[in-house]
Amino acid sequence: MAETSLIIYKVFLCFFFGFVVLIQSAPQTALITKIPGIAETLPSKHYSGYVTIDQSHGKNLFYYFVESERNSTKDPVVLWLNGGPGCSSFDGFVYEHGPFNFEAAKTNGSLPQLHLNPYSWSKVSNIIYLDSPAGVGFSYSSNRTDYKTGDLKTASDTHTFLLKWFELYPEFLPNPFFIAGESYAGIYVPTLANEVVKGIDAGIKPILNFKGYMVGNGVSDDKFDGNALVPFAHGMGLISDELFEEVNSECKGNYYNPPLTDPCQSKLGKVDEDLEGLNIYDILEPCYHSPEIREVTTASIKLPSSFRRLGETERPLAVRKRMFGRAWPLRAPVRHGIVPTWPQLANSNSVPCTDDEVATSWLNDQAVRKAIHAEEESVVGSWDLCTDQITYYHDAGSMIPYHKNLTSRGYRALIYSGDHDMCVPYTGSQAWTRSIGYKIVDEWRAWISNGQVAGYTQGYENNLTFLTIKGAGHTVPEYKPKEALDFYSRFLAGEPI
Ligand SMILES: *[C@@H]1O[C@H](CO)[C@@H](O)[C@H](O)[C@H]1NC(C)=O
Ligand SMILES: *[C@@H]1O[C@H](CO)[C@@H](O)[C@H](O)[C@H]1NC(C)=O
Ligand SMILES: *[C@@H]1O[C@H](CO)[C@@H](O)[C@H](O)[C@H]1NC(C)=O
Ligand SMILES: *[C@@H]1O[C@H](CO)[C@@H](O)[C@H](O)[C@H]1NC(C)=O
Ligand SMILES: *[C@@H]1O[C@H](CO)[C@@H](O)[C@H](O)[C@H]1NC(C)=O
């Protein structure tokens, strides 16, 4: 049942017994008491359930809330959003920075083993994983017309969710509040931040203590993102100097909307040919295409070990060789209008470059769904990492004006990029952050984690920071969990990274 209707029910009961009790804290019905797959006691409280954002439509968004393992009273609250459009934020929970490391089941039909994640973002923050928009992950609507949506509607729905969520958890209202996300959430985050700020300006209650936001390998602007690939491919040594010079002069440096001339198109075709077969989420990782073998042993990977190590972590589950976020074929950046989801693009349910087995088996297990208060399959269907049941419009345009607006009003922004991602390459994010024209206050320098260079950063006025994570792919904390927790903690604390 939706949390809000539960609360109404409780208040009603209170009236019935002749007294009014104001519900002042986290709803106890949302508390998770036992999680299949882990024997240890949880290091902090976990809550999950639905918030009804449109009663008449029966539109319900699912969240999973992890309290901070440090000091939940004082630590910030962060909303986490994965992209797609159409991908569940359990991607972040299972594969990136959630409280558990998942170890694949050893035998068929059994559940993955869960271990505590020493680099969970809940070490330093309270974090809400939200499935959005309705139709994604465990979120759903009883009125299917809601599955046709876009940027602006999603932002206003998520704002409604936040207002209702904080009504359910009012003790977290004083904590600093941040919004974070990755990939297509490069659109979700600034558009939602804009709604939040508008709400604060208009005095809409509850007043959110909004401080800033983070975007990782985020879609931002069709022109900058569309022009990012060719320079990336050249800088990474994937295309020759000659081809780089030729494609540049034939297409006049315009890859976002290239001239339809034969020479430009044929040079671009050559670029595609050179990049074909690479894993676009991390060019150092192997990639397999259906119907070939799904997994190989490390021994058969041909990368030199020094390169291989870039993708290795201390986790029991290796980084995914296959996955999908909002990915699009090379040279097809997100543009105004309909944005096909991956399953729609691939025109099939077997999407190339996906590995969602651990999450899929865990989140479709009946005991797990019951434990985390997810609706039954008869109501919400099976859980998919990325769904094709939504029709999604990119209708918010470029994010650059949003970033300008938010940062000039004092909200802090961290724009970070795994520097080996070819899906939303760092070259685009670096170029658009620079294009805003803010004064550089912290000139390009290495940033350090664990005594090592972990990447590079450039700081601009108005607390706009661009950051790379060396050797990381599209989903940064999946590849570099320790370094990710480091920059995340420093950013939230308002410290230099
Ligand atoms: C947590 O932070 C609050 C607010 O700063 C403080 O009053 C409280 O003592 C802290 N709790 C612990 C266990 O440190
Ligand atoms: C596990 O089950 C799947 C589907 O039922 C089957 O294709 C696969 O071969 C099984 N794997 C093992 C190791 O038994
Ligand atoms: C679903 O929503 C649409 C748009 O608000 C409305 O016109 C329609 O009547 C609704 N359908 C049902 C079954 O409630
Ligand atoms: C900035 O955003 C606010 C709402 O948050 C809006 O009222 C204002 O018009 C925007 N300013 C610009 C220059 O876009
Ligand atoms: C930047 O952020 C810090 C830490 O929150 C804050 O003290 C400072 O006022 C901010 N600067 C600007 C220009 O907004």
From TrEMBL:
InterPro entries: Peptidase_S10, Ser_caboxypep_his_AS, Ser_caboxypep_ser_AS. It is found in: Secreted. PROSITE patterns: CARBOXYPEPT_SER_HIS, CARBOXYPEPT_SER_SER. One of its GO terms (molecular function) is serine-type carboxypeptidase activity. The chain crosses the membrane at residues 7-26. The keyword Protein transport does not apply. Pfam families: Peptidase_S10 (PF00450). It comes from the Eukaryota. The keyword Transcription does not apply. This is Carboxypeptidase. GO terms for biological process: proteolysis; secondary metabolic process. It comes from Carya illinoinensis (Pecan). Its main location: secreted. Belongs to the peptidase S10 family. One of its GO terms (cellular component) is extracellular region. Keywords: Carboxypeptidase, Disulfide bond, Glycoprotein, Hydrolase, Membrane, Protease, Secreted, Signal, Transmembrane, Transmembrane helix. Probable carboxypeptidase. Its EC number is 3.4.16.-.
